[in-house]
Write a structure and sequence with these properties.
Elements (H helix, E strand, L loop, with lengths): L12 H7 L18 H16 L14 H19 L12 E6 L6 H9 L3 E7 L2 H13 L1 H4 L3 E5 L9 H4 L4 E6 L7 H10 L12 H4 L5 H16 L3 E8 L2 H12 L2 H6 L2 E8 L2 E8 L8 H4 L16 E6 L3 H13 L5 E5 L2 E6 L6 H9 L12 E9 L5 E9 L3 H17 L2
Parallel strand pairs: 1-2, 1-4, 2-3, 4-5
Antiparallel strand pairs: 5-7, 6-7, 8-12, 9-10, 10-11, 11-12
Helix pairs in contact: 3-4, 10-11
Amino acid sequence: MHPKSPYTVYQDFKKLAKDCPRFAPFVDIDSNVDFQNPAAVRELAKSFLLRDFGLDVELPEDRLCPMIPNRLDYVLWIQDLVDSSNSDLTSELNTSTPVTGLDVGTGASCVYPLLACSLRPSWRFIATDIDHDSLQSASGNVARNELKLRDRIRLHESAINGPLFPLDELGIECINFTMCNPPFYSSVDNLLAHAALKSLPPSSACTGTLTEMVYVPNGELGFAKRMLQESLILRTRIQWYTTLFGNLSSVLAFIAELKAVPDLMASGNWAVTDMVQGATKRWAVAWSFGDRRPAAEVAVSKAFALKGCSPPLKPELEFSVARQCGVVEEEVAGLLGELELIGMKRGNGEFYGEVKGNVWSRAARRAMAKGVMDTRADGEVQLGFLITVSSSKGGITTVNVRWKRGQDGVLFERFCGMVKRKIQLEK
């Protein structure tokens, strides 16, 4: 579970019932809730949304009921994805920067846009669905929270065979990200067979429609592959394409699809994570055709089951030196001062710089010394990096080199090697 989630700690249902009296009839004397009761599950979701996010929603009895901790984890991961790939220095991170997302298949609850916009007042959403009745319900939830949302969620009814990312229909040139919880099953028979194979009853009641739960062909994997095909056309008009998965085999197969795209395999600019809440596991994958890179903790999963799914090159290098932090900071500043940078920022032990190529090679240094290097600041950025210098115990200083921008992994590796050699080995 995401460390920012309020659900990482024990949830006292009796206390929740006091805060939200409509939930009280569903809590027994031992503070338990019957998760096989659809009404109890709906009221729990509504109570979480009201108490923790100030959102007043209605959830139809004949549509999927969102599990709020699970949905929140996906939103928080996307926050991290956007934040870590959109700022240069950590100190420059500005959560009030306008961000626009698109929720494919928002459902009757409209839960993802509601959660995201309640957490970030500068975020806006386009929420699409092919189910007219679900959109009517979603519209009611948006209207019910208008004072909080301030017209930041736009609903759009998509055609069944229309684009999943209808930017042209909406008259929008580009957005920051997409998100989707795709239909899980590949057919009605697959849905029924899956239910019959379960040796234990499901942990919570399911009230979804076929539109929400079935996609032909190939269920969630087929839906994700359709999103990938559309992303090959839109490319950088959307910074991050993301999707949720409920089946590990779908994740493994989809990562193989990403690796089959030459541009993505060359850049390795994708991210994968796992989300665990009790016995429930979900996975999310993001990919980008842009040159902005997410942080390692966002892009690289430590889960053994996802071994081989993370990007081929870890987007950071960390090493230690036995010198005082202030001394190492000046050494880093001196090293970067010898390079032909497009630009550099410094603050609070951080150095952000951009280069047009390998400017640390002997040939580049000779050219710089002769004054024949291209010093124009408008050259195309091939590599953006962030070097962070911080103190550790016992006079040890930690140096972290992070890949922030670019699509050439070899260039980043060479830069890391040069920095480590100069700072760690030659001093």
